[in-house]
């Protein structure tokens, strides 16, 4: 461990690692380059509990990151798992527990065996909607293999990945999210004997009702899709900032982490990005109103 505690800890957000192109996807080659760059630059990949401890004031290496994956796609096992293992890195998977099925582990990248199809995000969404999540999501056997290897630890991303606020009135929303979280917690206990405080919100959405339902079930560390802030000692565990990683080589990632950790350029960059996002949304709303 370094002599200094980390000034801040960037949390990286991934979804897919696959040769299939598309949104929120990183190629295996670029992911390999990114992990190699982290190692070459002396970064430590924290566990979720180490990260939560850091927010409370516990020391972690000065160069620390938390690597997170959302949803639990099969490609995380097929491609990300062996690449993490190759570099001795550790990641967190926020799993949609209803998607995880039973069955034997499938072949992984580098095994020499034919690999299962790992389609684009758009195709994965269609396959889930068709009730065939087992074709594109990790199985519990694969989850256990990854945890045993130390490449991934598994935490909660709800049971069904439903946006209850978009589907129900307030009473239905509160019942829906509470039931969804309870089912996910039960699945993690049954399959992994795991009682976790770590929860990632589907699509990054949350409100007071969501937080109250989660806290009532024992969740206390909440991960967002908001990149415009710093994870620092004393930071709010109910609002973890995460950086969406692009499909670019390791040099890009090191540059992005450098900005994220810089006490001067980081806030300026965040304000600029937030301004651009708000302006883009305003344009979209104007176009929609004219349509």
Automatic annotation (TrEMBL):
Molecular function terms from GO: hydrolase activity, acting on carbon-nitrogen (but not peptide) bonds
Entry keyword annotation includes Hydrolase: no
A GO BP annotation: carbohydrate metabolic process
Parts of the chain that traverse the membrane: none
CDD domains in the cross-refs: CE4_Ecf1_like_5s
InterPro entries hit by this protein: Glyco_hydro/deAcase_b/a-brl, NODB_dom, Polysacch_Deacetylase
The keyword Signal belongs to this UniProt entry's keyword annotation: yes
Name of one Pfam family that matches: Polysacc_deac_1
Stretches assigned to the NodB homology domain: 63-291
Source superkingdom: Bacteria
Keyword annotations: Signal
Protein name, per record: NodB homology domain-containing protein
Taxonomic source organism: Advenella faeciporci
Lineage: Bacteria, Pseudomonadati, Pseudomonadota, Betaproteobacteria, Burkholderiales
């Amino acid at each position: 461990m370094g002599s200094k505690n980390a000034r801040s800890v960037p949390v990286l957000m991934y979804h897919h690692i696959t040769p299939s192109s598309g949104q929120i996807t990183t190629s295996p080659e670029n992911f390999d380059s990114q992990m190699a760059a982290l190692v070459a630059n002396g970064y430590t990949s924290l566990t979720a509990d180490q990260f939560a401890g850091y927010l409370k004031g516990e020391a972690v290496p000065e160069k620390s990151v938390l690597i997170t994956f959302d949803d639990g796609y099969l490609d995380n096992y097929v491609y990300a798992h062996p690449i993490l293992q190759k570099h001795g890195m550790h990641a967190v998977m926020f799993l949609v527990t209803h998607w995880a099925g039973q069955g034997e582990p499938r072949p992984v990248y580098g095994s020499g065996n034919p690999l299962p199809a790992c389609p684009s995000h758009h195709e994965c969404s269609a396959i889930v909607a068709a009730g065939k999540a087992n074709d594109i999501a990790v199985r519990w056997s694969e989850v256990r293999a990854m945890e045993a290897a130390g490449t991934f630890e598994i935490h909660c991303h709800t049971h069904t990945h439903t946006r209850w606020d978009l589907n129900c009135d307030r009473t239905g929303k509160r019942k829906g999210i509470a039931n969804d979280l309870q089912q996910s917690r039960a699945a993690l206990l049954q399959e992994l004997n795991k009682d976790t405080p770590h929860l990632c919100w589907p699509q990054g959405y949350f409100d007071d009702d969501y937080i109250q339902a989660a806290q009532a079930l024992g969740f206390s560390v909440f991960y967002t899709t908001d990149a415009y802030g710093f994870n620092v000692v004393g930071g709010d565990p109910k609002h973890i900032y995460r950086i969406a990683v692009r499909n670019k080589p390791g040099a890009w990632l090191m540059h992005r982490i450098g900005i994220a950790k810089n006490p001067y350029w980081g806030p300026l960059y965040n304000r600029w990005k937030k301004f651009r996002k708000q302006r883009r949304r305003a344009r979209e709303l104007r176009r929609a109103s004219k349509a």
